[in-house]
Task: structure prediction
Amino acid sequence: MLIRILPELGHFALILALGMAMLQASVPLIGAATRRPLWMAFAQPMAWGQFAFLVIAYLCLTASFAFDDFSVAYVANNSNSMLPWYYKLSAVWGSHEGSVLLWVLILGGWSFAVSVFSRRLPRDMLARVLAVMGWISSGFLLFILLTSDPFTRVLPNVPGDGADLNPLLQDFGLIVHPPMLYMGYVGFSVVFAFAMAALLGGRLDAAWTRWARPWTNVAWAFLTVGIALGSWWAYYELGWGGWWFWDPVENASLLPWLAGTALIHSLAVTEKRGTFKNWTVLLAIFTFSLSLLGTFLVRSGVLTSVHAFANDPSRGTFILVLLGITVGLSLAIFALRAPRVQSLSGFGWLSRDSLLLINNILLVIMTVTVLLGTIYPLLLDALGLGKISVGPPYFNALFVPLTVLLCIFMGLGPLARWKRMPGRELARRLGLAAVIAIVIAAGLPLLYGGSFSLSVTLGLLLALWLTLSLVRDVFDKTRRGRTGKTGGRGRLARLRKLTLSYWGMVLGHLGLAVTIVGVVMVSHYNVEKNVRLSPGEQVEVGGYQFAMTDFHERRGPNYVADTATIRVDRPGRASFTMQPEKRFFMASGMPMTEVALRPGLFSDLYLALGEQLDNGDWSLRIQIKPFVRWLWLGALIMAAGGLLAVIDRRYRKAPKRAQAGARGAPDPIEDADMAAEGAR
Amino acid sequence: MRANRKRRLIIVLGLVALAAVAVGLTLYALRANINLFFTPSQIAAGEAPHDRTMRIGGVVKKDSVNRDSNSLQVTFVVTDFAKDVEVSYDDILPDLFREGQGVVIVGKLDDSNEFIAQQVLAKHDETYMPPEVAQALKATGNLPDGSVPSS
Result:
């Protein structure tokens, strides 16, 4: 009986969550303005209650999927009784309504986390932060209830079985990619809320950045993993062997990532030096706005892509209005409340400050170029000026040189000192690293590919430059005599003294180096051949022999598959077999290519069945992808760096001290920071 | 203070110059890499340029798919039910490519008005019609009932 009314319970829980979100958005804000402690204290229980009801709503929808309740339209459209249970559970976010519910659930989760982990925040600050998050939550809950209710029933003609989940989504990628990506997208709402709260409270010193930094890092790490998972999924699922298409949807996730990367650097400057204050607030606003823009692009149906579900235009309009309100209101508050007094502490032409400024400028330019290439076609189309698309050459032509510039300065940044850095000293410390990088980068293509290649050399040069300059920095930081000790054990002890946030930075930068190696190598040494093959035949590609030894049919849980067995031989190595498939999904009647992969740290073999040709031959896509794993490995390293910086002890100790000096100049915080680091 | 102000001026001027260069390069790259969309009718009317990458869209005509027996070479006809375009492609067709289905194709038009495809896109959803194609069909009054354009 209870099971029958679960969708109604879920719907009711959503309405209650909306009510609580609205209270969370308004009461604490008034309380903070009129200094009423009880009203301010309202924020926390509302955030908890809202999260609890969102969890209930989410579980109700999940249960409807698990128990095959096809009277719910969303379930009927996206599930099927034959679907394996783990896809039923993740089909919850397999389409529009459920994915927006997941979005709000995660937002509720972040609000809950903020209310739990930020008890040391000044009361009015916490009240304002949670209130801002309440506003966002209210907007999206209204969006769900008014335009995208996942609990709508199809009565009285209940379908006997569901239309099935899109076969493209029936994959491990669906289970992990959307939640990770959303954790990142939505996570940026926290730093946005902090920035807004700081503006509203007129507390725009460096204190808010210290509180917001860990949250931003975590969100950024999730987004990094989410994007990497998306790229990996597209790589093996779409059957083309591509890993980045400059598809508008991919760009939609890259945009907040680029802005977020700029943000975590400018937060560091604001926290440490008290400069870039306004800029950091602006970046926080833009990063979250780009997250919303991403949500709009993906969920509104303006794009033709695997992510755009058939959609009605009112939804797109609603998100666009939400986006407009968010950007407009936050910029208006910024214009009204941003401090007019400029920070007085200057810095030299060559210093960590100036290098981070360059980093920010470059990242913002990259963001703008990608944004332009992504929305330009949409704008033209909306204005009725014709249908165009912007191809990958545009993005490559701009993104690649900008990345080169960024990496050059990235090598310098970690070694430069705040405020002023003599150029001669920097050159002395990095000269050797530069020379070694150039020699290795010029030599490696000769050894690996047999001929010199400018693009490979340039890419490897950048990766080596990043790596070696970090090595040099670690070496210098643990140098003998800094603490007066001698001997090898002393160096090890000094190595242990380096802070976790320092190691976080090292990993973040190293991760990019690893990704760059992956990009360069797989772009340049990729071997690709499409062939016709029939059972018994064999073909040679890139030093491998591929022979189709067998072809048979196989039954899966909800599909029938044509499976080819391909034996792969290489002179001097043991042979092995690979089994690419063409699956035919029974419920939807859709065919799907299931790629056969032989992954390796230095090279992937990639086989995808095309189609059966007239005389029984099969077309087969054969690809050899060197270093492709490094792309995602690098992203994982970057994310690990982001998380490592968060566990740094000073963030757990800091709030208490920062509170005392919160209204003052940034110096006490800087001192407290020093003390915290010194105390280790 | 004066030195400070002067430096600030230089920084601002530098930023403006940098931004101008960035915008200029961006617009140039954008102009060079825009792919326009054409319908079969527009191509037949000679509106489409030759030897420039563009996108066309329409429905794959029934019984028009022809495969070479030795290679992967395939030719087919894309139609908006008013005019046709011959398309040739030397790669593996997507899973959902079939006759009667809406497709969008990236490629170039050769001198004999045959379209040399570089990429064929067929959406992974049977009821889906690419918005460009839906519009092209609407223009010729041939949008079939029951197909759901996404916009």
Notes: Chain A touches chain B through 48 residues (CB under 8 Å).
